[in-house]
Amino acid sequence: MDGQIRADRLDAAQLGVELGEKATLVQFSSAFCQPCRATRRTLTEVADMVDGVAHVEIDAEAHLTLVRALQISRTPTVLVLDAAGLVVRRAVGQPRTVDVVAALGQAM
User: Fold this and answer.
1) Distance CA 16, CA 33 (A)
2) Cα distances (Å, whole numbers) of residue 37 to 1, 10, 32, 77, 80
3) What is the DSSP string of 15-71?
4) Which residues contact 49 (CB under 8 A, 6 or more apart)?
5) Can you state the angle between helices 97-107 and 34-49, rounded to 10 degrees?
């Protein structure tokens, strides 16, 4: 692929880190976003609980090309990727742990 960003799939080069073995939780945040902090805690806890799941937090302001390509309009926005980087779920706002776990069930 010629550097073009697909809205349905992400890879390690675009994220700046390796994908999780089974799934990846990608969080788009901004500096002064209070719900982003709570979202970070929730996603970190879930990633620590579930083997093979990685959590990646991306500063939306520092990655505008990616934000535009994925049509991220608010923070926090969370994308749930399967092992191949396919976006299987997308949520805006602070997620509940139970919802994150359920979304991972779709990804794995």
Assistant:
1) 22
2) 34, 23, 9, 12, 18
3) HTSPPPSSEEEEEEE-TT-HHHHHHHHHHHHHHHHSTTEEEEEEEGGG-HHHHHHTT
4) none
5) 50
The amino acid that residue 8 corresponds to is D
The tokens of 39 are what? 């979202």
pTM of this structure: 0.92
- Pairwise CA distance, residues 52 & 37, whole Å: 23
Q: Residue 46, exposed/middle/buried by CB under 10 A (0-12, 13-18, 19+)?
A: buried
Interval 88-107: pLDDT, tens: 999 999 999 999 999 999 88
